[in-house]
């Protein structure tokens, strides 16, 4: 590892600094607020482009276990087809790392008119559009010229999933039901 210049120790050191910077900005109350927003929304939409696609998939997978279905929003001009259904009481989880894509800008702007809520996951600390989001969840992903890992954003997302699970309640019962279903149908679908 020493000869390669890239090592687990080096990565761990870098990630530790990014975690510290993230949680100097993000406070526990913000995750509590995000969990409340998720559990109280009529519909929850998801816009997770580019590198955040994997984060969006994990969020959708985990939230489904909690009874919260994330509805993916398309990119490009197809987003208008979905926007006609957005209304007050809905929530959009937006991901925008390195920059805020045009779709994110449009969805933030439209939320001001319609009244749906937005949670923006980003690595940006300064951008005029951040104030349009109802809640900004910041993740430090390194300096502009660094390799931008998604480990810290995933950690933040995991914390939100755990907070949401607490807010929803019934976690033990759902876990038992999940085990029962897996056992009942294990001969048909292997895990």
How would you sum up this structure in a few lines?
This protein has helices at 8-25, 28-40, 53-65, 79-83, 102-114, 151-168, 171-184; strands spanning 44-47, 70-72, 91-96, 117-122, 135-138.
Task: Please write the string of helix (H) and strand (E) elements.
Answer: HHEHEHEHEEHH
End-to-end distance = 35 Å
Strand order, sheet with most strands: 2-1-3-4-5
Biggest sheet: strands, sense, closure?
5 strands, parallel
List keywords for this structure.
191 residues; single chain; 49% helix; alpha/beta
Draw up the topology in text.
Elements: H1 8-25, H2 28-40, E1 44-47, H3 53-65, E2 70-72, H4 79-83, E3 91-96, H5 102-114, E4 117-122, E5 135-138, H6 151-168, H7 171-184
Parallel strand pairs: 1-2, 1-3, 3-4, 4-5
Helix pairs in contact: 2-6, 3-6
């Amino acid at each position: 590892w020493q000869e390669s210049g890239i090592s687990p120790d080096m990565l761990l050191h870098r990630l530790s600094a990014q975690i510290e910077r993230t949680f100097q900005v993000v406070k526990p109350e913000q995750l509590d607020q995000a969990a409340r927003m998720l559990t109280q929304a009529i519909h929850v939409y998801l816009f997770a482009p580019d590198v955040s696609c994997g984060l969006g998939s994990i969020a959708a997978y985990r939230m489904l276990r909690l009874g919260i279905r994330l509805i993916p929003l398309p990119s490009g001009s197809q987003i208008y087809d979905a926007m006609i259904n957005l209304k007050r009481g809905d929530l959009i989880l937006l991901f925008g790392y390195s920059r805020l894509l045009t779709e994110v800008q449009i969805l933030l702007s439209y939320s001001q008119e319609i009244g749906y809520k937005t949670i923006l996951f980003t690595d940006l600390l300064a951008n005029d559009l951040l104030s349009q989001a109802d809640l900004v969840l910041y993740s430090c992903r390194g300096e502009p010229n660094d390799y931008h890992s998604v480990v810290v954003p995933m950690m933040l997302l995991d914390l939100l999933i755990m907070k949401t699970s607490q807010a929803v309640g019934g976690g033990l019962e759902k876990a038992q039901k999940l085990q029962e279903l897996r056992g009942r149908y294990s001969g048909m679908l292997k895990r």
